[in-house]
Specification:
heterodimer; A: mainly alpha; 8 helices; 0% strand; extended; B: alpha/beta; Rossmann fold; six-stranded parallel β-sheet; 6 strands; elongated
């Protein structure tokens, strides 16, 4: 059991990981052919992971309905929504044709619901700014002043009120100091990603197998 | 209770009402404020404009209805530009919930220009796998998408006579609500070397400036402003007379931003007045 659950996945991760890294430096035709084949296999495997994901979601909500956990009614909504959309997709033989059931559901359910969720943010952001955006410290003041400049500089009213210099200054703020900070973050993320990849390849990081650690 | 405390405990529904008015009034009574073209937006326009007639562009529409107000007008403007210039367009989405909007945008603009699917444009639809899809597209698009979104075989399409790999395209644009631009750069552009631009939501625009600086992105459209800039550029160039949704939305966005700034300044003034009063009372 240990062999199937641990040694084989770790060995596979090591060999595939090492190969996918080394193939970058090996322009040999056969190596590149293996690389292409692995990528195409990956596409098929990813397709199957969708099935696993759907099963996992439905199973999770089935348990909630079965045990009548608090707010289990929402789990029923998940089932109804899932099967309605899948059913509409199967009925809609003309793929996403305007006026078809799938497109109707998309236009009249998904678009308004997702747009509403996102637009509500505007109300909460202004409310939060009203209550919490204070120049209490030096750093908070810099943040506040920068936010005001960028907010006005990114919209036409900024230019109308303060002239052409404001959008230019805003663009400089985004392209220079903000960019420098972003670059630092990106380098950190990149290094962390390399470290994590190495940990997975060498079998140190095993949480992807489930259960975590040993 | 001091004036400041009373102001801070104001029912937030009053603020919501202010936001609502700031959005609705400019939409009903547009002011037509001037839109300044930023260098990253101009760069995308110039890149697309330089593609010769019959050239090829790849557009990834990696967004869903949540980002529709910002990215959908951007998509329409970009498609209008490409169809007007008779550039052949390959479209796809790597977001499962992006299918509906991508399909709608493509059909709307294709009908406007009388473009034929499979010849002037093709919508490949959605494929799961993100980075892997990009990697396999770098080797062969026809192998990655044997059929388009309508179930037609891509192998027999005239549009794929001269292109099959990512680096066969004259330009690629990722219209993204999430972090897909970075994935396209890491797995697509850097490996297969093709010119690339991005269109993104305003909130994620700042994270792409490092890529603009390094030249990994040739240009960028950021948020509703970027979409309005593109609409202005194609209108000024005489490619369309259709009024753009982003341009109409810029007045509302201007007023909401101004209102937020005024609110922040006023509450900060009240905050400092309150702090001074408290200090004086302590003395």
């Amino acid at each position: 059991m240990n062999l199937v659950k641990k040694q084989i996945p770790i060995t596979l991760a090591f060999f595939i990981g090492m190969f996918m890294w080394l193939q970058n430096y090996l322009p040999n035709h056969d190596v590149q052919e293996i690389y292409r084949t692995i990528n195409l296999w990956s596409l098929i495997i990813i397709g199957f992971t969708l099935i696993v994901g759907i099963y996992s979601l439905l199973n999770h909500h089935a348990q909630k309905i079965k045990r009548k956990t608090p707010q289990w009614g929402f789990s029923v909504v998940v089932y109804i929504a899932m099967f309605t959309m899948v059913g509409a997709g199967l009925i809609d033989s003309k793929h996403m044709e305007a006026g078809g059931p799938l497109m109707w559901l998309f236009d009249n359910m998904q678009v308004p619901m997702q747009s509403t969720m996102f637009s509500i943010l505007a109300f909460y952001i202004v409310s939060a700014a009203y209550r919490a955006f204070r120049a209490r410290t030096k750093e908070a003041t810099i943040l506040l002043v920068t936010a005001i400049v960028v907010m006005l500089g990114r919209v036409p009213i900024g230019e109308v009120m303060f002239g052409k210099g404001l959008p230019v200054f805003t663009e400089w703020l985004l392209a220079t100091p903000s960019m420098a900070a972003q670059r630092g973050i990106l380098l950190g993320v990149g290094l962390a990603a390399i470290a994590t990849a190495l940990r997975i390849i060498f079998g140190i990081e095993r949480t992807y197998m489930g259960g975590g650690g040993d | 209770m001091s004036f400041y405390d009373r102001m801070m405990q104001i029912d937030r529904r009053w603020i919501f009402l202010l936001v609502l008015l700031a959005v609705v009034i400019p939409l009903l009574k547009p002011m037509g404020m001037p839109i300044k073209i930023t260098p990253p937006a101009q760069a995308i326009f110039d890149k697309v404009d330089a593609i010769p007639e019959g050239g090829n562009i790849l557009i990834a529409m990696d967004f869903d209805p949540a980002s529709k107000p910002e990215l959908y007008p951007m998509t329409l403007a970009l498609l209008r530009h490409c169809f007007y210039k008779k550039i052949k367009i390959t479209l796809l989405t790597l977001w499962p919930s992006g299918m509906g909007l991508a399909e709608k945008a493509t059909k709307t603009i294709a009908e406007e220009f009388g473009a034929v699917s499979g010849e002037d444009y093709v919508f490949l639809g959605y494929k799961a796998g993100f980075a892997i899809v990009i990697l396999t597209m770098g080797e062969s698009i026809k192998n990655t998408f044997p059929k388009d979104a309508n179930g037609n075989s891509t192998g027999e399409m005239p549009i794929f006579e001269n292109v099959d790999k990512l680096n066969d395209y004259d330009f690629m644009v990722d219209l993204a609500a999430g972090a897909s631009v970075e994935v396209w750069i890491a797995y697509g552009k850097e490996r297969y070397k093709f010119p690339m631009g991005a269109g993104c939501t305003a909130v994620s625009a700042t994270q792409y400036y490092p890529y603009l600086n390094t030249g990994q992105l040739d240009g960028m459209l950021g948020g509703l402003k970027g979409a309005a800039e593109y609409e202005k550029m194609i209108t000024d160039a005489g490619y369309t007379k259709q009024p753009g949704a982003a341009t109409m939305g810029m007045d509302a966005q201007s007023i909401v931003h101004l209102m937020t700034v005024i609110i922040v300044i006023v509450t900060n003034i009240l905050f400092f007045m309150q702090r001074r009063i408290k200090k004086e009372e302590e003395v």
